[in-house]
């Protein structure tokens, strides 16, 4: 099944533990380090638009790209409430098209890990380089192999809320470094609060090493700048579950 269809409805509920505002401050601080205080900024894999809205609030002219129509519908509902002039595009990040270049590109919540192999990742990096202004900045995060192997592994994670519950079954395959997880959702019916509807989705993410990321960044024509442990300014460690990477446009 297509990922983030039925899950879109309850995505924000289950992601309420993610410190989006802190991440937005972090991204904003880095952008300011490169004299990007305003102007066009693209978010790849924008989902329901939480980060897109936060960066728009900080003064950026935001564009959000996602391949889930269900997620973008929720993002556009947020746009109506906030009044921010955000452009949302229903596009796959492997083939996104813009009307012109942007000052920066950001991608959070391990969207990069949904790219299944080196070729797909390289293609996205090439597109980012193509649509960045000269010396423009690309900031993204990714889940590490350590997280998939040691933290998620073959674990089953479940969470129950009053209006919805989920069961998240992980299966990490070391031979191809792919984490497949089956997501089972029980969502309360809006018509009958005693009725819960069951939905199932299958997601796959690929584990990449930082060295591989560096290699593919440079292969795509970008310049690798730095990597940090999960929204800090500390160097990545072996036990880092999430790593943030900064790259820069280096000629088309």
Automatic annotation (TrEMBL):
Pfam families: Methyltransf_25
CDD domains: AdoMet_MTases (cd02440)
Gene Ontology terms describing biological process: methylation
Keyword Transferase: yes
Occurrences of domain Methyltransferase (ranges): 41-136
Highest taxon above the source species: Bacteria
SUPFAM superfamilies: S-adenosyl-L-methionine-dependent methyltransferases
Transferase is among the record's keywords: yes
Assigned keywords, A-Z: Methyltransferase, Transferase
Single GO MF descriptor: methyltransferase activity
Gene3D superfamilies: S-adenosyl-L-methionine-dependent methyltransferases, Vaccinia Virus protein VP39
Entry-linked InterPro entries: Methyltransf_25 (IPR041698), SAM-dependent_MTases_sf (IPR029063)
PANTHER family in the cross-refs: TRANS-ACONITATE 2-METHYLTRANSFERASE-RELATED
Protein's UniProt name: Methyltransferase domain-containing protein
Native species: Sporofaciens musculi
Lineage of the organism: Bacteria, Bacillati, Bacillota, Clostridia, Lachnospirales
């Amino acid at each position: 099944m297509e990922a983030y269809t039925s899950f879109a409805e309850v995505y924000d509920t289950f992601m309420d533990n993610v410190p989006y505002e802190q991440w937005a401050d972090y991204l904003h601080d880095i952008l300011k380090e490169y004299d990007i205080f305003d102007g066009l900024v693209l978010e790849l894999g924008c989902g329901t638009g939480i980060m897109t809205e936060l960066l728009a609030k900080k003064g950026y002219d935001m564009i959000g790209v996602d391949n889930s129509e269900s997620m973008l519908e929720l993002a556009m509902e947020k746009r109506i409430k906030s009044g921010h002039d955000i452009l949302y595009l229903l596009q796959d990040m492997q083939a996104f098209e813009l009307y012109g270049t942007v000052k920066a590109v950001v991608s959070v919540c391990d969207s990069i890990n949904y790219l299944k192999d080196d070729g797909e990742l390289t293609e996205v990096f090439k597109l980012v380089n193509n649509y960045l202004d000269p010396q423009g900045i690309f900031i993204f995060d990714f889940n590490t192999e350590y997280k998939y192997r040691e933290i998620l592994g073959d674990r089953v994670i479940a969470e129950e809320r009053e209006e919805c519950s989920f069961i998240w079954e992980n299966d990490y395959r070391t031979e191809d470094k792919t984490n497949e997880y089956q997501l089972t959702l029980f969502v309360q019916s809006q018509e009958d609060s005693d009725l819960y509807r069951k939905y199932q989705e299958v997601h796959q993410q690929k584990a990449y090493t930082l060295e591989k990321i560096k290699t593919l960044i440079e292969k795509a024509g970008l310049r690798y700048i730095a990597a940090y442990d999960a929204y800090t300014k500390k160097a990545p460690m072996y036990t880092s579950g999430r790593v943030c990477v900064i790259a820069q446009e280096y000629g088309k």
